[in-house]
Amino acid sequence: MEHRIRDAKGTILIYKGEPICYNILNTFAEQLGEALQRLGEEVEYFDVKQSGEAALAAYAGKTYQAVIGFQSYLFDIYLPKAGIYLHDLIKGPKINFQFDHPIWMKNHYIRMPEHCYSATHDRNYAAFIEKYYPRIAGSSIIFPGGCEKAAGENGKQEAERNLRGRRIKRNIRYPLLAPIRTIGVICH
């Protein structure tokens, strides 16, 4: 991977604004941003619903430590008059978190800028992306993570009850309540 988040300095740009799936993608974006800020990183958000796609043009020429989206279509915005993808003008690695099967992102993944990576929780999705979407620079597997509730034993009991209530097995390989290790974020 040519770009490395931890080697770079500067702001991390996170996309949000699509209220699909009960707003969960915005929740992921906000929680990742908060965790990165707790680690001392500078985070900037771009809310596409609030600002509109056209406002993203103002970011051309800027450099970021990383540009992060959650199943975002913003990475494939093409400027036909210039013959270039907008994100080729926004410097830094682009990371698009993929939670649904990547076949549903085909229209976006066949049109991607340079230095665009995919992060997914499923090794089959990662293999699919690597095989069928050559414009993606690389695909990494992320493991489910989260933050334990800081309410002591009651918080643990509540979390256990929530896990049982959703019929999620507690003995999964990567526990749902483990710290986020994938990108170095630890919740406290």
Short description:
With about 190 residues, the protein is α/β, with parallel strands linked by helices. It has five helices and eight strands; from the N terminus they run E-H-E-H-E-E-E-E-H-E-H-E-H. Residues about 1-5 and about 160-188 have low confidence and may be disordered.
Properties at a glance:
alpha/beta; six-stranded parallel beta sheet; two-stranded antiparallel sheet; 8 strands; 18% strand; disordered C terminus
Task: Give the SSE map.
Blueprint: E1 12-16, H1 24-38, E2 43-47, H2 48-51, E3 66-70, E4 78-79, E5 84-85, E6 94-98, H3 106-109, E7 116-120, H4 123-132, E8 138-141, H5 152-165
Question: Would you write up a description of this structure?
Answer:
With about 190 residues, this protein is of the alpha/beta class. The protein contains five helices and eight strands, in the order βαβαββββαβαβα. Helix 4 (about 125-130) links the parallel strand 7 and strand 8 (about 140). The two termini are about 30 Å apart.
Question: How many DSSP-defined strands?
Answer: 8
Query: What's the overall geometry?
Result: globular
Q: What is the strand arrangement across the widest sheet?
A: 2-1-3-6-7-8
Rg over C-alpha atoms, rounded to the nearest angstrom: 17 Å
Strand-residue proportion: 15-25%
- What is the string of helix and strand elements? EHEHEEEEHEHEH
* Largest beta-sheet details: 6 strands, parallel
Q: Summarize model confidence as the mean pLDDT.
A: 76
The number of distinct helices, counting runs of at least 4 residues, comes to 5
